[in-house]
Specification:
- The complex is a heterohexamer, with 2 copies of chain A, 2 copies of chain B and 2 copies of chain C.
- Chain A contains 4 helices and 5 strands.
- By secondary structure, chain A is an alpha/beta fold.
- In chain A, strands 4-3-2-1-5 form a 5-stranded parallel sheet.
- Chain A is globular.
- By secondary structure, chain B is of the alpha/beta class.
- In chain B, strands 4-3-2-1-5 form a 5-stranded parallel sheet.
- Chain B is globular.
- Chain C is an alpha/beta fold.
- Chain C has a single domain, classed as 3-Layer(aba) Sandwich (Hypothetical Protein Ychn, Chain: A), CATH 3.40.1260.
- In chain C, strands 4-3-2-1-5 form a 5-stranded parallel sheet.
- In chain C, helix 1 links the parallel strand 1 and strand 2.
- The chains are: A alpha/beta, B alpha/beta, C alpha/beta.
- The interface between B and F is medium-sized, with 30 and 30 residues.
C-alpha cells in the first residue's frame, strides 16, 4: 500500500499519467500543489482513470488557493488528515 | 505517536515545496508526532540561505524555519549540494577565501550521511 | 524606451511555481517604461486568471488581484488561448479581467507580430 | 546505520537537469553507510543508463561512468521499468550496466517493499 | 515566421505537444537540451507531427551528450547555425 | 552583423540553461555578432552568486561569466528577484544589516527596467 503524492499539473507534466499506470487498488493518491488542477480535466484521457481510484484525495488548501472545486467522489482533506494518511499507508512517493 | 523526517528538494519561492513542507510539519507537530528533522538537498538547499529577503507581503521562510528549530526540529543542509549553489558555512567559506557566509544558525551544514541517520523514523516525506 | 514590441507569455499555473508572479512583475515594469507589451496566457497559464483565488491558504501571495491594474499601465493587449481554456473546462466568465480569447491561428498571428517573446 | 530500507527513484533524464547526478551521489553515500538501498529507473530516468553519453559537449559532467561503481558499494538492487524502456525504443542492450528489467506490477511490488522512497 | 526552441523531454513535459498544436508551415522547431530525447519517440503520438515539420532542427551537442542519434529528416546543427537561425526567423520563443 | 540580448531564467547546475546560454553567446561572438548583455531573472539570478563552488571536475560558471564580461558582455541581475533568493549586492546587504554580500563584480545588480533597455537589439533569446 503506497501513498502517491502528486504535485504537478497533469496538463503540463506527465507525472499523473505515469503514476496512474502503476497504482494498484490498495494504493492512495493525493492531489496537492498544482496537481489539484487535475480536477479541471473532465475532458482529458486521464480523468476517468484518476477518479476511479477509490482512495483519491485532494488537499483543501491547494484547491482553495487556486479558486477551483472538487467533485463529490474526491476526498477533500487538510494537512492533519494528510499526516495521518502517510501513516496509514506503508510508504510514500512524491511524484 | 509517530516519527517523521522531511526531505526538501525544491527551491524556496520558485516552487511551493517549502510552503507545503512547513504546513505538513506544523500539522504533524500539532497532532503530537515527532519530526526528527528536515534535510535540504538539491535546489532545496536554497532554503538554508540566511539572506532570503522577500518583500514584506510575502512569506519569510527564514523566520518560519527558525520557528521550527525552536520547536526541536533539526535543520540540516547538504554542504556539497549547497556549495554548488553558492551556499557556504563559515568554515567552508573561510577555506574558499570568500568574504562572508550565508549558511548560519538555525541551519546546520551536514553531509548526506546525516540524511542516512534521519531514516530511522516511521516515515520520510519529500517535498 | 525602445520601439521594440515585447510579448510576455504565461504558460505556468499559479502558486505551484513562481513564474506567473514574476511574469506579472516584468509586465508592470514594461508598462511603466512605456514599452509596447502584450501579455499572453497559454496552456496552464490560463489558470493565472481564475477568479476567487485564495493562495494565503498555502502561504503564497495573491498577486491575481494585480491583474486588474494592468489597464492603468496602458497594457491593453491581453490574449488568452481559446483551446487552452476549453481543455480545462473554462470560459471567459471564469476569468478575473476582460481578455481577447483567440483561436490557435489568430493567437500565433498575434505572437508573430512582436519583436521579442519571453515565456514564463 | 538504521535498518530501514530506502528506494531511490530516478525519473528525470540526464544533463538537462541535475536530478540524476545528485540521486547517484545520494545512492553512493547510502551504500557507503551500509544502508540497504535500491536504485530504480522509471520514465525518463531510464535515459540515465544509456551507453555512449558525452556530456562534456554541453559542459556537464559525465557521471554515467560512475554507475559501473555501484557494485563496489554493494548496491545490487538496480531496477529498470520495462514499460519506460519500451516507450523510448530501448532494450537492456542499450544500457551501460546490468539491471533487473521489471514489468509495472513487479516494479510496484519491489517499490512497496522499501520503508522509505525518495524520487529525483 | 517564429523559431521555437524546445528544451524539455516530451516524455515528461507537454511543451512539445503544445508547441506542435500552434506551429505553421513557415515556423521552425529546434530540439535542444532534454528535448532531443524526442528523437527516441518513434512510437509516440507526437512523433509524426513533429517529423513532418520541414524546418525541424536538433542541436548536435545535446544529441552527443545523451548518447542518442538523429534520423535523416532532422537537420542536425551546431551552435553557430543556431545563432544564424535565430536571425533567419522573425522572432524566437523558448518553450 | 546583428545584436543580441540574452535572458537567463533557469538556475545554474539545476538545469542546463546556463550552459546553453554560454555556448550560444560564445558562438554569436565568434561569428562577429554583438551581445549587448545578459539579464538574469527568475531562478536564473542564482548565476550571479560570487560563491558558486562546484567540484573541480565540473564547470565553474563564475569563471565562465567573468570571461564573457571581459569580452564586453554586460551582466545584469534583477535585484528584486535576487533578494527573494538570498542574493544581495553590497548596498542591499548593508541596508538589511547582513554580514556580507554575494553579488559582486562582474555582476551588476539592476532592476527590470535595465532589461527594457536591453530590448533594443535584433534578437532576445531566453535560456
Amino acid at each position: 500500500m503506497i501513498l502517491h503524492l502528486l504535485r504537478a499539473s497533469p496538463f503540463s507534466d506527465q507525472s499523473l499519467c505515469q503514476c496512474l499506470g502503476r497504482v494498484t487498488e490498495q494504493d492512495g493518491i493525493v492531489l496537492m500543489q498544482d496537481a489539484v488542477y487535475a480536477l479541471r480535466g473532465q475532458e482529458q484521457a486521464w480523468y476517468n482513470p484518476m477518479t476511479s481510484v477509490s482512495s483519491l484525495y485532494a488537499l483543501k488548501e491547494d484547491i482553495e488557493a487556486r479558486g477551483i472545486s472538487a467533485p463529490e467522489q474526491v476526498h477533500v482533506i487538510g494537512y492533519p488528515e494528510l499526516v495521518t494518511l502517510t501513516l496509514k499507508f506503508d510508504n510514500v512517493i512524491s511524484w | 505517536m509517530a516519527t517523521f523526517s522531511i526531505l526538501v528538494t525544491s527551491a524556496p519561492f520558485d516552487t511551493q515545496g517549502s510552503n507545503s513542507a512547513l504546513k505538513f510539519i506544523q500539522a504533524a507537530l500539532a497532532l503530537g508526532h515527532s519530526v526528527k528533522g528536515v534535510f535540504f538537498y538539491q535546489a532545496g538547499v536554497n532554503n538554508a540561505s540566511a539572506w532570503l529577503t522577500p518583500p514584506a507581503d510575502e512569506l519569510n521562510l527564514s523566520v518560519a524555519w527558525r520557528a521550527l528549530k525552536a520547536q526541536g526540529v533539526e535543520l540540516h543542509v547538504c554542504s556539497t549540494a549547497a556549495a554548488r549553489r553558492g551556499l557556504l558555512s563559515e568554515q567552508d567559506s573561510q577555506e574558499q577565501g570568500y568574504s562572508g557566509h550565508n549558511i548560519q544558525p538555525p541551519m546546520t551544514a551536514s553531509g548526506l550521511g546525516q540524511f542516512m541517520e534521519m531514516l530511522d523514523v516511521d516515515r520520510v516525506v519529500q517535498f | 524606451m525602445t520601439s521594440k514590441r515585447i510579448a510576455i507569455i504565461n504558460r505556468t499555473a499559479p502558486h505551484g511555481h513562481s513564474q506567473g508572479q514574476e511574469a506579472l512583475d516584468m509586465t508592470l515594469v514594461a508598462g511603466s517604461f512605456g514599452q509596447d507589451v502584450g501579455l499572453f496566457f497559454l496552456d496552464d497559464g490560463v489558470f493565472q486568471l481564475l477568479t476567487g483565488q485564495k493562495p494565503d491558504a498555502v502561504l503564497r501571495k495573491n498577486y491575481s488581484k494585480t491583474f486588474a491594474a494592468l489597464e492603468f499601465y496602458d497594457i491593453d493587449t491581453l490574449v488568452v488561448c481559446q483551446q487552452s481554456l476549453q481543455a480545462r473546462g473554462l470560459t471567459q466568465a471564469d476569468l478575473c479581467i476582460p481578455v481577447q480569447v483567440l483561436a490557435p491561428d489568430a493567437l500565433r498571428e498575434a505572437l508573430a507580430s512582436f519583436n521579442h517573446i519571453v515565456s514564463f
